[in-house]
Amino acid sequence: MISLKPLMLSGREVLPLIEGGKGISITTGECSGAWAATGGIGTFSAVNADSYDEESNLIRQIYHAVTRRERQRELVDYAIKGALYQARMAHETAGSEGRIHMNILWEMGAAEEILTRVLESAKGLIHGVTCGAGMPYKLSEISARFGVHYYPIVSSARAFRALWKRAYHKCQEWLGAVVYEDPWLAGGHNGLSNNEDPQTPEPPYPRVKELRGMMNECGLEQTPIIMAGGVWFLREWEQWIDNPELGPIAFQLGTRALLTKESPIPEDWKQRLLTLEKGDVALHQFSPTGFYASAVRNNFLRELEERSHRQIAYSLENVGEHDTPCEIGVRNRVVYLTASDRDLAEKWKAQGFLEAIRTPDSTLVFVTLDKAKEIRTDQATCMGCLSACRFSNWAQNEAGTTGKKADPRSFCIQKTLQAIAHGESVDSELMFSGHNAYRFAQDPFYSNNFIPTVQQLVNRIVTGD
User: Fold this and answer.
1) Cα(311)–Cα(173) distance, rounded to whole angstroms?
2) Do 146 and 276 sit in the same domain of this protein?
3) Pairing between strand 178-181 and 225-228?
4) What is the Cβ-side half-sphere exposure of residue 201, based on CA atoms within 13 angstroms?
5) Less Cβ around it within 10 Å: N or C end of the chain?
């Protein structure tokens, strides 16, 4: 049994075990409430969360407006209704135990408005807000306004220093903890900087020690750090507990919390988790956010990899080695390739990849006619789920655009995450996961396809296993 001392988080002493908030409809009020009921912290996702009508029927998020700006207003309404529904469910499920946090992404569309309007209407239901995917400077101000603790997600001491100096020092009393999310181990979007090599993981201990040192300089010696990413067996982290170099420590579990009775993910997703092998989760950079992300290498991810490989540079003029004309598009516009790239283009066309789509980097990507139609349809029906999207070139500004060409090497993240959460094939949609997911197949706790309740899982975790 691991010696876990309670920590003061969001105004109450709780078990220092936090359920990680995971994307669209993946951590709901049911599972987060069940986690809080064990005495820890449950986290529901407020990223386009599901809501239901009076007969308990799912309200599908269908968009009717003509313009992207109008569709984003529909998205905001869906998001607020969904978040409030999940907050109420979590509160009811938890009873008087633990704490309930909501998770948002700072780079999601209308994040400030959604956070503000949810907290306005959810007094007493939400005790903390965790937030990453960007630099959420206004998180502290908004949370403090409603008397709710805030939990920024960072991947380095440098990132927290910037947040502290610019904004957080003004609302120190509402800073509940700092979440360190390991960029090489965590699932979903990761906070790798341009100075870090995605192929060369760094151990978390020195990075968390550096974060603690920086926090101590700011007078935050007693503010906990929450370790997120790669946490499976607590016995592997025992040297972190009661360690004076690290100070108060809690642990966040995201991937392992996916596989419970209360988890809302479809059954075939749960069964797929039980079969993953080491290396099945890949760090990639196809996300329309521009961030690196970790996901299972299924057919969805492999198609993106292969699409990117069918890529060649072009010129609009006959310049240097780009002297070989090639007609592209429905208008048969002439561009110039190198002779060897023209041979590649003809090879791909012979394989059925007949459509060449231009990218923002003056390259052509070759896809099938059906895939080209899908890409253009998804770009045209964008609903502004991100503050800026490289796939559709939407941006949350007066112009409504990033000013760059839409990038066909990416994808509509809202479409695929809604699809996999609501029963589409786990092989044909984006399947986020942490890199430790292969341990489901190796951990005897899950033998014979055993899927625990949240309470059974937490009981197991506190033993060290």
Assistant:
1) 51
2) yes
3) parallel
4) 13
5) N
Q: Considering only CA atoms, which of 416, 385, 384, 421 is closest in space to residue 58? A: 421
Helices (H), strands (E): how many in the chain?
14, 18
Give 60's strand partners: none
| 346 and 256 in a common domain | no
Are 417 and 441 members of one domain?
no
Q: Which two tokens stand for residue 178?
A: 């700092």
How much is the pTM?
A: 0.94
For residues 162 and 134, membership in a common domain is answered with yes
Q: Which among 182, 179, 150 is positioned nearest to 167, based on CA atoms?
A: 150
Q: What is the structure's pLDDT at 409?
A: 96
Per DSSP, the residues of 87-119 read HHHHHHHHTTSSEEEEEEETTBTTHHHHHHHHH
CATH label of the domain that carries residue 275: 3.20.20.70
Q: What is the pLDDT of residues 68-107, one digit of tens each?
A: 999 999 999 999 999 999 999 999 999 988 999 999 999 9
Number of domains in the chain: 2
356 and 449 assigned to the same domain: no
Q: Which residue, among 40, 43, 42, has the nearest Cα to 7 in the 3D structure? A: 40
C-alpha–C-alpha distance, residues 370 and 109, integer Å: 29
Under 8 Å CB-to-CB from 21, ≥6 apart: which residues?
27, 32, 43, 44, 45, 101, 102, 103, 130, 254
Pairing type for strands 311-313 and 128-132 reads unpaired
Residue 293, domain member (yes or no): no
What is the chain's length? 465
Tell me: do 394 and 261 sit in the same domain: no
User: Which secondary structure element, helix H or strand E, spans residue 159, and what is its range?
Assistant: helix 157-166
- Which token pair is 384? 């502004």
* Burial classification of residue 279, based on how many CB atoms lie within 10 Å of its CB (0-12 exposed, 13-18 middle, 19 or more buried): exposed
Q: How far is the C-alpha of 415 from the C-alpha of 286, rounded, in Å? A: 15
Domain housing 213: 7-282+436-461
Tell me the pLDDT band of 329, cut-offs 50, 70 and 90. Answer: confident
* pLDDT at 37 (0 to 100): 97
